[in-house]
Each structure stands twice: as structure tokens, then as C-alpha cells.
Give the backbone structure.
Amino acid sequence: MHPILIEVGPLVIRYYGLTYVVAISLGYVLARLEVRRKGLPLSGEGVLDLLLWTIPSAIIGARLYYVAFQWSYYSAHPLDMVKIWQGGLAIHGGVLAGALAVWIFCRVRRVPFWALTDALCPSLILGQAIGRIGNLMNGDAYGVPTTLPWGLRFPPESPAGMAYPGQATHPSMIYEMILNLLIFVFLWGIRKRGHRDGFTTAMYFILYAVARSIVSVTRGDSLWLGPFRAAHVISLVFVAVFGAMIVIRRLYRRETTA
């Protein structure tokens, strides 16, 4: 496991960046298909514009969220804030910032917000799964030490190797990748069942919250809110808010057979 795929002189291609490119490209294709199927007022160029709004916002949000929880380090090393290729993107911050960007985009372009987020969520969770490959090669998003036979020993210069030198750790990024792929299969399977707008989005937040809460038990680099893992706190909020949204708005009802 090594973070660099190709290095020729000044040219460096990292797995971390490559997985982002693959995830974004595949996400664009799937999102465009879903937007077209749902009859939303967005062309292929409109979907591309949407990505240009949301992706930078999500990356900035993910980094700021992570930096906020590691402020004691970054306040002393401010230049390291921009080194996202070394890891340190918190998915919860990225999702929240990206959702805000999508909401603003919908207001400007007059696109139904929940219908659009329903079209985007399968692509989002698939992209998250692909991104975990970059974490694996980078040695970040790592787990705590384990004696299980599938524990991984990362290179000493990796984040996992520096945190637990010489020790096998839970492959937490692989656990999450598998769970994310299962969520993708579920969301992709329900997208044509005619539930009310917002149901797929709510299920994404609930299922990912549950998956992340499970994986976070094994994480060795968790962000903390006092005695609680931040992932558990925000996951609890997601389950409560979106569970209530499904019940109150009766999103589980089917309105079409398309």
C-alpha cells in the first residue's frame, strides 16, 4: 500500500486524487441518467454545472470540518490546512456543505430540491465507496489495533503506521466501502418505486449514519466531541431528523409506478 500510483519527475499521480476523479466521473454519468429519467429541468451541461458548484463546496466543507476538530494542530501548522492529499477530509462536513450548495443551485435554477437530491444520492454513496480505496492506499481512515486475521499493517510513514507502528489495525476503510456499496445497491434498487420526493435522500442519510456509526467503533482516528465520537453524534441527529421527515411527510408512500 502506497499513496503514489505514478511518479515521473515532477509528475505525481496519487491514488487519493485518482479515486476522486473516478468517483466524480462515474457519479456524473449516473446522476445525468437519473436527472433525465426523472424529467428534471436540467441538461447534461446543467448537471455538470451542478457538480462544479457542489464538488468544491464539499471538499472545502470536508476539510474545514476536519480542521475544526484538529485545531490544536492546524493552528500551529496553518500551511498544512491545504494538504488534502495527505488525507483529512471529514465526510460529514462534505455532505453538509455539498447539500447547501445543491440547495442554493436549486434556488437559482428553479429545480425541485428533493427530487434532485434523490437523483444524486445513489451517485454520492457510490463515490464515497470508491473514495475509500484512496484511504486504503493512503493509510488514513484507519482502524484501531486488532488481532483478527484480516488486520492490516501499514507502512511506517503512513498515518496508520505512525499512529500504530508495527501493529495490525482494523481495515476500517474497507468495512465502510463494503457497507457503502450495499447502501448504493439498495438506493439504486428503490429509485423507480415511486416514493415521494425526499424518500431516497432520507434513506441515504439514515443508512449511511447507521453504517458510519458501526464502522466508527473500529476507527483509530475518530474526531471527538467530549467523550463522544463526533460521527456518532451527527449520525444520531441524521437518523432522528430524517426518520421524522419520512414519518411526518409520509415519504414512504408511493405516488407513481415509474
Remarks:
- DSSP finds nine helices and four strands in the chain.
- Residues 4-248 form one domain.
